[in-house]
Design a protein that fits this description.
single chain, 570 residues, alpha/beta, Rossmann fold, seven-stranded mixed beta sheet, six-stranded antiparallel beta sheet, 17 helices, 32% helix, disordered N terminus
Length: 570
């Protein structure tokens, strides 16, 4: 639609040559969305051709402004709409034009469409914000009470009820009290909550776009951090909120409180002494990598300068200068990361934490810092210590194999896992468990006593369990483990930390083997030895599976949980 008329009532288009004042939208303006209503009906102007570019709105004080996309700021329609607002005897605010991103204009139009529907669903205007945040805080407090690592909020476009679940001890749980939350209410909750997200990509929550950021909520006198990651699916968006500092603990924990045995704590201590080299942690999602990394950096003496690059900042580390570097995987952030690395080197940092290496940008940062003599601490997604090295040297990360195999470059490799820990007060012996009327295997299928006896004999022979020391989960639990009132958690008391570590400087065969066979072939040989015999030529190395067998013999790990994590014994 083009405006051809030059006369409109008492005023003419020539009376308004340009907007008298222009404001650029900022995230601080998000709260104003709730105050605005569209005034197309007051202007008697067709809106169909303009809605995707501009929109006139009025706030609670009867002040009008024109929301315009930046690229349309000089269009004739802007001047014509300002003229129409004056002719309708509406008061123009100062500034009278606000340049907004497409997401903001889309949100204003979405709310307008909801209000125009005869049988409209509940909108943000009808659900008070305090009700939505009360629901969010109830979800977060429940997650804290059961020590959940993640909160999952899923919108199904074809279902009236939303799907709300929690990850507790690595298991997905759906509490009955949250299964009646309606899809439209959860949708409005996510829209409102996103407005408080820091470091997010986008001014508003977009169900059709993957978005990440950090949300902080005041809970029980403290602040609980939530790492936001949304995923677009065929049926609707799902948002995973990682609980960054459980129980409101913003300070990184002490390293010796995480459950590592003394010999592994000694390896950590050696890795944090001296200049240069990399310490790399790996593990599955929710295995505590970031917690261990923060605790490790916290243990570095105050005589050293520590800088972190995180996305997002998960723990407060008092002895570190923490920097938020968002979206390392996107091309537009490459210059920002390069500039940050140059500044770090000029800042004379002894130690640098890189929250996670996801691709080539992170790999280049690792190489750059290590070759400059800086100690680097980071995490990587890999399924074992051996595969950390294969992942580093893959085309996805791009660290040269010659550099990885050079003495002093890799100081310590860690792969860790968290396993469910049995309640010591009610765990059952095999004979006690075998007397029960219902027996379930690792696949949660009911089995006969004969099947269980054959399985137990095969398992003890295959992995060397002491039958007299092994224990099983009590399905009814006891007063010590029933407090959380979740059936799938009864019989457990927290989680066990099990880890495998490789310290190249302490393994004479490490560099010798790689030099003779090449990295890929030598690592494949060690992996096959571990799978076949449970040990390999590296004398100081014990696999995470072997550590888990120690837990079986200590009576703190259910054999069925061992099979769920490491595979069924045939």
């Amino acid at each position: 639609m083009r405006w051809r008329s030059t006369t409109m009532g008492r005023l003419t288009l020539s009376d308004i040559t340009a907007p008298s004042s222009v404001q650029v939208w900022s995230d601080r303006d998000t709260a104003r969305l709730d105050q605005w209503r569209q005034v197309w009906d007051r202007l008697a102007i067709p809106s169909d051709d303009l809605l995707d570019r501009m929109c006139p709105v009025q706030d609670a004080n009867q002040q009008c402004q024109l929301l315009v996309l930046p690229e349309c700021a000089n269009d004739n329609e802007v001047k014509a709409l300002l003229l129409a607002i004056r002719q309708a005897d509406l008061t123009l605010a100062e500034p009278n034009v606000v340049l907004v991103p497409p997401a903001v204009l889309g949100e204003v139009n979405r709310r307008f469409r909801l209000l125009q529907k005869p049988n409209k669903r509940v909108s943000i205007h009808q659900i008070p914000k305090h009700v939505l945040f009360s629901l969010l805080d109830d979800l977060v407090m429940w997650a804290l009470d059961v020590d959940a690592s993640d909160l999952h909020l899923t919108l199904h476009n074809d279902k009236a009820a939303a799907d709300i679940a929690f990850t507790v001890n690595g298991v997905l749980i759906r509490p009955s009290q949250f299964q009646s939350v309606r899809t439209h209410m959860l949708s409005e909750l996510l829209s409102v909550a996103w407005m408080s997200v820091r470091g997010g990509n986008g001014a508003l929550f977009d169900p059709g776009r993957e978005q990440q950021g950090r949300l902080d909520r005041p809970i029980r006198g403290g602040t609980v951090g939530l790492r936001w990651a949304s995923l677009v699916t065929a049926n609707g968006p799902t948002v995973c909120l990682r609980v960054l500092n459980p129980e409101g603990r913003a300070q990184a924990p002490a390293l010796d409180a995480l459950g590592y045995p003394p010999e592994q704590l000694a390896m950590f201590e050696r890795a944090t002494s001296g200049d240069g080299g990399a310490v790399i942690l790996a593990g599955m999602v929710g295995s505590g990598k970031s917690t261990t990394l923060a605790a490790l950096v916290r243990s570095i003496p105050l005589s050293r300068k520590v800088i972190t690059l995180e996305d997002p900042v998960e723990y407060v580390i008092d002895n570190a200068l923490q920097c938020l570097v968002t979206s390392l995987e996107t091309s537009e952030s490459d210059q920002g990361l390069a500039s940050k690395l140059k500044t770090i080197k000029r800042s004379a940092a002894h130690d640098v934490l890189i929250g996670e290496i996801r691709g080539r940008e992170g790999g280049q940062a690792l190489v750059d810092l290590v070759l400059s003599g800086t100690s680097v601490y980071t995490t990587l997604h890999a399924s074992s210590v051996m595969q950390i090295l294969l992942r580093l040297t893959s085309s996805l990360v791009g660290v040269p194999p010659s550099l990885v195999s050079m003495p002093g470059v890799i100081k310590l490799l860690v792969y860790q896992a968290l396993l469910p820990k049995l309640c010591a007060h009610c765990a059952l012996t095999f004979d006690q468990w075998g007397c029960r009327s219902s027996l379930f295997c690792a696949l949660d299928r009911q089995r006969s006593l004969r099947w269980v006896e054959q399985w137990w004999r095969r398992l003890t022979e295959a992995i060397g369990i002491d039958p007299s020391r092994a224990r099983f989960r009590h399905p009814e639990g006891c007063t010590h483990c029933q407090s959380r009132n979740i059936q799938t958690l009864v019989g457990y008391a927290g989680r066990l930390m099990v880890a495998e570590m490789l310290e190249p400087a302490a393994e004479p065969l490490f560099f010798d083997g790689i030099a003779k066979r090449g990295m890929a072939e030598q690592l494949a040989l060690w992996e096959s030895q571990l799978r076949r015999d449970g040990v390999c030529d590296l004398t100081q190395y014990r696999s995470v599976r072997a550590r888990a067998i120690d837990c079986l013999n200590a009576g703190c790990l259910d054999p069925r949980d061992f099979e769920r994590r490491f595979g069924l014994i045939r």
